[in-house]
Amino acid sequence: MPKYLDIVDDLRNNILYGKYKNADKIDDEKALGVTYSASKLTIKKAVDILVQEGLLVKKQGSGTYINSVASSNPLLDPSDLTKPSSLTHEYEDKTATSKVLEFEIIKANEYIAKSLLLKPGDFVYKVYRVRYIDNEANSIEEVYMPINVIAGLDQDIVNHSIYDYIVETLKLKPKSFHKYIYSRPCNSVEEKELKMKKHDPVTIVEQIAFLDDGVPYEYSLVSHYYKDFKYKTVVVI
Asked: In what residue span(s) does the HTH gntR-type domain sit (predicted)?
């Protein structure tokens, strides 16, 4: 992973988790270069990304400051930028559990193979499970993962946090997520498991997830009851 992205992650965490206070001026590029043993160009790339995300504001002739709006505006929640795509971490103060409907190794069809940079017929895990928050059904996940990337997945892991297994056991680093969000009428499984009425809409989050080396490790479709679904993001133009 390029060094400037490591610096982005570290600076972002420092901003979000209290090293800097709102509206504090951050170190200048020369000082940051010493801190991170990096060139001025590398530091500039990192700072510019955080400016684009809305976490920093550059003031000509004065320096670079924390954007206080980033922590006070609910539509610009900077912590969303660092949250993993994981129900366990999204609801850290609650209990996340699973009911596994299907867990098997299958041959990837053409679409799944294309999404995961595989060949049709390559083997992938298929996980189909209901996710609960404090014993209330929250979503239904249909997940496909290449067995040559996510090795050793088993029933016990699938019953708990797959994300924690990837990070803590396999020591892999999820980095980015491409999401496509749309709605459709619920199917019979969603109607039953999410306690919906026939033809109620569900919100679908279709996602391809990538590791820090650019390798896709997950293709998933997650169904949410439309009344419970909220999604926030930051758009950079």
From this structure: 1-69
